[in-house]
Amino acid sequence: MKIKLLLITVPVLISLSVPALPGVRDTKHNFTQQSTSPNAYFLGANQVCVFCHTVHNADPARDQLWNHEVNDLQTYIPYSSPTLDMPQSAPRNGSLICLSCHDGTIAVNSLNNLPGPEGAGNYGIPAGPGLDGSGRLTSASSAYVGTDLSNDHPVGLTYDTGFDGDFVPKTGNPDLYPDKLLYLGDYVECTSCHNPHDNTWGDFLVESNQNSDLCGRCHIK
């Protein structure tokens, strides 16, 4: 009986010692709850993931089973600087999927595939001071980026230290820095520094930036 009791109780103790993994449900990207996203939430919405993802009829031009409307024709004022040496183009998917909400031109609840059989449309009723009546982010929201990216970290960059030696060279290994931060292994996009599912480090950073550690993954200073 003692042996059987140990076999039963040990797994319970192990399960109690494992910390809960962070997730989007407890972050401001949970638009279903005023308690998690007080400035931008949607009345009547109860599905957390659907604002970005769908398991059926996803946008074929995106990865990650993308569900949110994206405007590929939207133009942005890019970052510019006399010290910017690497090639810069229009934002790629690694930024467009973020900007589809944060630039304020598309409603946060504008989806390609609503829950159920309805197809495309708007999900829930916009509420909170960071949204206008159509569900778009406004400049009143700290999450608003707009279409003028001239004062933001550049995106759409092809990471190539041949143009600038003040950056950490690529290794060719996607598990090592700086490669693991680059979109598709080559480009600097929003997702290089931000993980929308995890706010452990604040500002949805992919890792801690204490002592500028995250910046130092690419920049040599």
Query: Tally the helices: what do you get?
Result: 3
Shape: globular
Helix content: 10-25%
- Could you give a short account of the major beta sheet? 2 strands, antiparallel
Measure the end-to-end span: 63 Å
Radius of gyration: 21 Å
**DSSP, total strands:** 6
Give the topology string: H per helix, E per strand: HEHEEEEEH
Biggest sheet strand line-up: 1-4
Alpha-beta classification:
little secondary structure
- Low-confidence spans: pLDDT under 50, at least 5 residues? 1-20
Strand content: 5-15%
Please state the average pLDDT score. Answer: 91
Describe what this molecule looks like in 3D:
14% of the residues lie in helices and 6% in strands. It is globular. It has 3 helices and 6 strands; from the N terminus they run αβαβββββα. It has helices spanning 2-17, 93-102, 190-193, and strands spanning 41-43, 110-111, 121-122, 125-127, 157-158, 187-188. The termini are far apart. The strands form 3 sheets. A two-stranded antiparallel sheet has the order 1-4. A two-stranded antiparallel sheet has the order 2-3. It has a two-stranded antiparallel sheet with strand order 5-6. Residues 1-20 have low confidence and may be disordered. It has 221 residues and is low in regular secondary structure.
Question: Topology, pairings included?
Answer:
Elements: H1 2-17, E1 41-43, H2 93-102, E2 110-111, E3 121-122, E4 125-127, E5 157-158, E6 187-188, H3 190-193
Antiparallel strand pairs: 1-4, 2-3, 5-6
Keywords:
two-stranded antiparallel ribbon; disordered N terminus; globular; 6 strands; about 220 residues; little secondary structure
